[in-house]
Amino acid sequence: MGSKAVVRPPRLTSGNRIALVAPSGPLLERDELTRAAELCRELGHQPVLGPNAARRHGYLGGTDAERLADLDSALRDPSIDAIWCLRGGYGLTRILDRVDYAALEHRPKPLIGFSDVTALLLAVIGAAGVVTYHGPTARQPMPAFSRRHFTRVLGCAEPAGVLERLEAPAEILVPRAPRIVTISPGRAEGPLIGGNLSLIQSSLPRCERAPAMARSASTRCWSTMSHR
Predict the structure, then answer these.
(1) Helix (H) or strand (E) holding 41
(2) Is residue 182 situated within a structural domain?
(3) Neighbours of 77 (CB within 10 A)
(4) Most buried in the list 15, 91, 94, 218, measured by CB within 10 Å?
């Protein structure tokens, strides 16, 4: 990242226009785009569907050119307040070198997603110096726990602070203890880098746009292993 300061994009407010794009894999069900738009409205925002959001090109959500066009259009459009990826999958590493990071640096806006979107989230931090959000994709159902934290992190001007603990549902047979193990007790402070571990490990260390902090042993890093 060099000496570039990292800035937080403006918080989301009611009525914001949110671009729904699929820069990685394709949608798997016909009604996923409709459900994503409905979720966006339920959260109080206006969905703006990418022209190629429903396309499919093999295991990709459209050709590289189509996926890049939707993403860059949302980055450059001054009327778009945030970009919410519809799903992960695979494909973002194919277009990372052509993304218009300068547009996001000029006009920061929240970028939200997870899984394969990790590649874009970290590339944006490195190339544009803008905070990104490792969060649910737009096509997924959003339970109350996720909705509270989504609104708290993206919609509040104050720092999110300590987040709630997600308790395991009583009807699901999972071990209850020890769910979390302390390896080295104490307190730490530093940049928080989140994402899909396989993307961080296999792609980003070799990507020139990956932030230096993502490769630093001192970085506080958390990850997911799911591919959606």
Answers:
(1) helix 32-42
(2) no
(3) 16
(4) 91
Name the pLDDT band for 5 (thresholds 50, 70, 90). confident
Mean pLDDT of the chain: 85
Burial class (CB in 10 A: 0-12, 13-18, 19+), 75: buried
Give the lowest-confidence range in 15-19, 90-94, 184-188. Answer: 184-188
For the segment 171-200, what is each residue's pLDDT rounded down to a tens digit? 767 666 666 778 888 888 877 777 888 887
Residue 173 lies in a domain: no
**175 within a domain of the structure (yes/no):** no
**Residue 52: which CATH number?**
3.40.50.10740
- Using a 10 angstrom Cβ sphere, with 0-12 exposed, 13-18 middle and 19 or more buried, the burial of residue 48 is buried
Which among 199, 222, 189, 209 is positioned nearest to 125, based on CA atoms? 209
